[in-house]
Backbone:
C-alpha cells in the first residue's frame, strides 16, 4: 500500500467513526495530500470502497502521470464542477456525504443540497487536517529538503547584503536564490524588515535600505516540491546597541528553552508557556503578542498550534515552528524561528543556521 492509499484508508476510519458514509474533498491541498495530484479545480469523492477524482480535460494527462490507478471523472467543459460532482455521487449511490465546512462556500453547499435532495450532507471540520498533523518519513524528508534550500539561499543573501540594498531587493534575491537551489518557490512572501519595520511580524518589504538601521529581521522559507520550511533570523548590520543585545538574548533563551521542552505528551500551551514565561520575567511580556509557533507542511500554517489555548498533546511526527518575538513599535523587533520535529525521544531541530548573537553580525 503506497502512502496515498494509507492516508485514504486512515480517512475512511475517521469517517466510519463519525458515522458518515462518504466524503467530498474540495480543499485542493487536501486532494493533493490524499492522491498526489498537484493540480487545482478538482474534487475527490471518498466512499467506503473507492475514490473518484472529479476534474476536467486540462488535467487528464497530469492525473494519469501523478495518480496512476486512481478513478477519474473528467467533466465536460460545459458542465460545472458541482453538477459533475452530483452525477458522480449519484452514480455511486451515496446517501450520506461529509463536506469540508472549512473549504466549501455557503453557495456551493446550498447548490449541492438543492441538486441532491436524496443525499444527506454533513458538515465536517478538520478531519483531513487532523491526519496531516502527523508527518510520515516522506513528508519529513521533504521538509528537510525545503529547510536546506532556504538555508543555502540565506547564506548567499547574507554574503550579498550591502548598505544600499533595499528590503525588496533583498527579498527578491533571497527568493531567486531559493529557486536556484531547487525550490519550487518561496513558502510565503519573504519578510525583510529593517529597524522599525522589524516590529511588524507580517511586514512586506519596501524601499528602506539595509544601511538605514543597525539590524534587519528576515523571515523566509522554501517550498521544495510541495512541503515548506519557515525560518527567521536577525542580522546585525550596524552598531550593536545594549537594547538589541538585551532583547536578542531574551528571545534566544526563550526559544532554546521552549525547544528543549518539546517532547511527546507535552501540550502546545505548555510549550508556549515556557517561552512566554521567560519573556515575561524579563519584563517584555506585553511585547510578545502572538503564539509561539505552528505546524508546517503542505501549508505554511497548519495544526498544531503552540499557543495559550491549545491543550492537545504533541505527538511523534509533528513538525512545528518555534518563534518567540519581542516587538517595540518605532524601534523594531527580534524574532528567532526554527522548524522542529517531535520524535520518540523528544525532538529534532530540522533547521541548522547559527543564531548566537555573535554569529549574526553581518556588515
Residues:
Amino acid at each position: 500500500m503506497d502512502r496515498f492509499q494509507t492516508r485514504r484508508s486512515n480517512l475512511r476510519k475517521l469517517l466510519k467513526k463519525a458515522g458518515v458514509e462518504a466524503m467530498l474533498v474540495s480543499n485542493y491541498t487536501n486532494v493533493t495530500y490524499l492522491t498526489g495530484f498537484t493540480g487545482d479545480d478538482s474534487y475527490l469523492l471518498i466512499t467506503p470502497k473507492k475514490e473518484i477524482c472529479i476534474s476536467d480535460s486540462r488535467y487528464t494527462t497530469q492525473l494519469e502521470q501523478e495518480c496512476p490507478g486512481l478513478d477519474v471523472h473528467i467533466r465536460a467543459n460545459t458542465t460545472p464542477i458541482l453538477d459533475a460532482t452530483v452525477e458522480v455521487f449519484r452514480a455511486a449511490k451515496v446517501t450520506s456525504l461529509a463536506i469540508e465546512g472549512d473549504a466549501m462556500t455557503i453557495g456551493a453547499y446550498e447548490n449541492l443540497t438543492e441538486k441532491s435532495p436524496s443525499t444527506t450532507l454533513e458538515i465536517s471540520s478538520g478531519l483531513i487536517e487532523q491526519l496531516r498533523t502527523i508527518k510520515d518519513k516522506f513528508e519529513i524528508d521533504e521538509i528537510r529538503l525545503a529547510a536546506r534550500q532556504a538555508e543555502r539561499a540565506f547564506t548567499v543573501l547574507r554574503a550579498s547584503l550591502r548598505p544600499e540594498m533595499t528590503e525588496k531587493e533583498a527579498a527578491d534575491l533571497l527568493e531567486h536564490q531559493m529557486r536556484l537551489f531547487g525550490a519550487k518557490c518561496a513558502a510565503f512572501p519573504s519578510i525583510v524588515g529593517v529597524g522599525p519595520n522589524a516590529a511588524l511580524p507580517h511586514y512586506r518589504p519596501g524601499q528602506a535600505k539595509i544601511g538605514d538601521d543597525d539590524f534587519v529581521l528576515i523571515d523566509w522559507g522554501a517550498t521544495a516540491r510541495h512541503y515548506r520550511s519557515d525560518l527567521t533570523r536577525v542580522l546585525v548590520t550596524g552598531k550593536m546597541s545594549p537594547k538589541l543585545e538585551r532583547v536578542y538574548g531574551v528571545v534566544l533563551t526563550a526559544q532554546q528553552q521552549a525547544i528543549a521542552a518539546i517532547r511527546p505528551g507535552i501540550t502546545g500551551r505548555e510549550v508556549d508557556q515556557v517561552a512566554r514565561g521567560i519573556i515575561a520575567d524579563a519584563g517584555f511580556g506585553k511585547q510578545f503578542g502572538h503564539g509561539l509557533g505552528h505546524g508546517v507542511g503542505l501549508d505554511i500554517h497548519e495544526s498544531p498550534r503552540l499557543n495559550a489555548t491549545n491543550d492537545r498533546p504533541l505527538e511523534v511526527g509533528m513538525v512545528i515552528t518555534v518563534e518567540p518575538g519581542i516587538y517595540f513599535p518605532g524601534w523594531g523587533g527580534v524574532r528567532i524561528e526554527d522548524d522542529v520535529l517531535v520524535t520518540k525521544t523528544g525532538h529534532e531541530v530540522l533547521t541548522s543556521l547559527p543564531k548566537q548573537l555573535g554569529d549574526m553580525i553581518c556588515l
Notes: The mean pLDDT is 96. DSSP finds ten helices and 18 strands in the chain.
